Amino acid sequence: MVLQLLAFKVTQPIGEFYVTVIPSCKLMRLAEADIRRITNRAVEEYTGIQRGLSPTRRKEIKRYVETVDATFPNSIILNLPEEKLIEPIRKQEDSDTYSIVVRDDSKTFEIIDGQHRLSGFDEYNCQNFSLLATIFIDLVLEDQAYIFSTINVTQTKINRSHVYDLFDVAETRSPEKTAHTIAKMLNTEQESPFYRRIKFLGNIPEVDGEILYKPILAQGTVVRRMLDLISRSSREDRDQIKRGRTIPEQGDEIEKGLIFRPFFIQNKDWAIYKTMINYFSAVKANFVQEWLDEDNPLSKTIGYGALMKLLVPVFQRGYKQGDISYEYFNNVFEKAYKQYRREDTQLSFKNFPASGAGENALYQKLRAWCGVESMG
User: Which among 60, 146, 156, 371 is least surrounded, fewest beta carbons within 10 Å?
Assistant: First the structure.
């Protein structure tokens, strides 16, 4: 069986796509393979593009669909694999519309965004409910990931760990992809002080119901802090790279706090990874008990945030001296630990609460212990 859709063509920087209206009953049928897998769809497994939808939430959407004034004015965003086209897309004579003739089967469309909305329809409530649809043709996973992140991060609050994981499939180099790759290496390499400490996609790793380890830092937190040291506008950097342009070095990146930017521009991601290893290994080697204690602020999110802030002035001094080795960082934190032990201040959540203010207070204290004021 085949189905003909009439659509308008839209041209934007990402490329061409088509906008049409599809009865919800038909779209249910054409994307059935994606809709009925509420979790663990193929696109989820490889990119994390959709969050899981609980049966309770699905029932809530279904009840909403059946209300008297239900509406979904936003477009369902779809990918149409080229092999599902029966014939080339053609412009209609004497019309601005285009004819899209597709196979009428359950795998015709892949859902980029909108699977949750579609899950609320069934054969009884889909009558007289048409849906706006945006159709991309044979879109690569990288671009699907980028579209999803643009929609969901700029417009709504979602778990950033899901979004950063999308860049694992990206073919184009970008600050997000670099930071994501380094975060994965930090979590999986046994030499890393972050070995098995980072939670990816909000999941605690299990095998047959048995928890393998309990990570204490969110992937999104780890990635975001690295991004802050790579780029002021990661989207612009990605766009420049995708256009085949070279990102110029201004020469003052390190002075401005973008200490990882020269490494990124020079394609030396290994140097970013090595700096993270050297720096945090020095923290772990000196603040041994504090680093191992999962209830200590130094080992938690505010500790990571404070230490990443501190990395900037510490790195700047080492860079001027031509030394960002482990030995250099170790000397810094050896001094910091001695100062810490001399003081009466305890590293506790009472003194450094889990908040932005607590993180800043911890940063200021670490800065003083390290003698950062005299590092210029």
Answer: 156
